Amino acid sequence: MEVIAALMNKIDSWIWGLPMLVLLCGTHIFMTFRTGFIQRKTLTGIRLSVTKDPDSPGDVSQFQALATALASTIGTGNIIGVGTAIYLGGPGAVLWCWLTGVFGIATKYAESLIAVKYRVQTADGRMMGGAMYALERGLKWKKFGKVMAVLFALFAMLASFGIGCGTQINAIAEVLETNLPISLPRIAIGIVFGIITAIIIIGGIESIAVVCEKLVPLMALFYVVGCIVILCANYDFLLPALKAIFVLAFKPGAVTGGLVGGGIRLALQYGVARGLFSNESGMGSAPLVASAAQTRNPVRQALVSATGTFWTTVVVCLMTGLVLVSSMMKNPAVSVENMANGGQMTTAAFAQIPYIGPLILMISIITFAYSTILGWSYYGERAAEYLLGKKAILPYKVLFIAVVVCAPVLALDLVWTIADVLNAFMAIPNLIAVLLLSGVIAAETKHYLKH
Which residues lie across from 60 on neighbouring strands? Predict the structure, then answer.
């Protein structure tokens, strides 16, 4: 096991180093220009997300599809991940994290557009789509497309058990174990959440979407209100915090308030990496549920899906970053020197709200993590059905629920690493689809945005 762990760590460090950062960021920038800076249509996407299109083909509303995608995307990375970026890369990492979200909107738009364009309808009337169908049906090289499609589906299904389930329920168990006044056996936590998960996911995408439609706005609002309370308390440090974020994104040294940055290399490396993890743009995950949306054309749903990156990184991650940097300036105890990791920094920042601060953080982490489990259960189910047919759905769900039950008692360091590698392997076929079909994306965008 030690040999396997060492090997996976090496693969993880390499693939999430320069190669993946260049591939993802390059795609973000390329698609921004190829789509004519589609980010300018973000407000249109937000409006469309709350506009129903019931007479169009699809299984769920556009908002339900977006909520399900947000459920799987808004996770502990938006809270703990930003703290980790600041801890390792300095306050300047917040700027690079934010810019990754801004440019990532274009890739999320592009991958969702081709997922909807090339989706298919099953014999029982359900809509199926995602990178595998875009690769299989959209590329001219059919054999190559089919191989890439199978690889994407395989890695997506495997990743759903790791990053989409095991790591999330383990994080929930950790939070409950640390914060509850009574001690609960971890297996009991797994059983309770396993039963709840079974009730929800056995009902399929309609059941998952209904829960996510209610849960996601409430949990996001709850967390954002907590951030606003802290930012109001730190109001006199907001402008200095913004200045520190911009200055330390480009040069090493110290700024007012004693904050220290490691320079552009560290800020860029950790800011971009956390930004990519926080919004999943380019991973091909959100298009799996976007394909089920009721929409009259691919561009409409692509605009809606693109707002997911706006909410997760441009809004939520930025607010977390401002909370942490302003708190570090106001209270020297909340600093890199006094903390063991980014998670502790986030905990200390929220502890500034008397009595309820730790409760806000605890509930946010639990709801963010659990919503990720629900969203990824659908992603894995779609991938399993593509690979093995409809008969694979029930066995997949049973195995997924078993992971929810058992994962809280497992040591998951290796699972985290394997999940990171699988996410990278998911992204590569998906980005191939986006880049090779960029001409189709540009043509569809030009056609529909003129009408």
Answer: 293
- Angle subtended at Cα 442 by Cα 284 and Cα 310, rounded to the nearest 5 degrees: 50
**pLDDT the model gives residue 194:** 95
Distances, alpha carbon 19 to alpha carbons 23, 24, 73, 274, in Å? 6, 9, 23, 15
Which tokens sit at 247? 């200055």
- Residue 283, Cβ neighbours under 10 Å: how many? 27
Residue 178 buriedness (CB in 10 A; 0-12 / 13-18 / 19+): exposed
Phi, psi of 293 (to 5 degrees): -75, 150
Helix %, strand %, coil % of the chain (to 5): 80, 5, 20
Amino acid at 99: L
Burial code (b: 16+ CB inside 10 Å, e: under 16) for 41-73 equals bbebbbebbeeebeeeebbbbbbbbbbbbbbbb
- Dist CA 61 CA 54 (whole Å): 7
Q: Give the pLDDT confidence score for residue 287 in this predicted structure.
A: 93
**Residues 120, 311: Cα–Cα separation, whole Å:** 29
* Total residue length of the chain: 451
Tell me the whole-structure pTM to 2 decimals. Answer: 0.90
For residue 183 the two structure tokens come to: 């001690």
Highest mean pLDDT among 7-11, 76-80, 410-414: 7-11
408 touches 190 (CB < 8 A): yes
Encoding tokens for residue 271?
């800011």
pLDDT in tens, 44-101: 999 988 887 777 777 788 888 888 888 888 777 778 778 888 888 888 989 999 999 9
Helix or strand run (H / E) with residue 127: strand 127-128
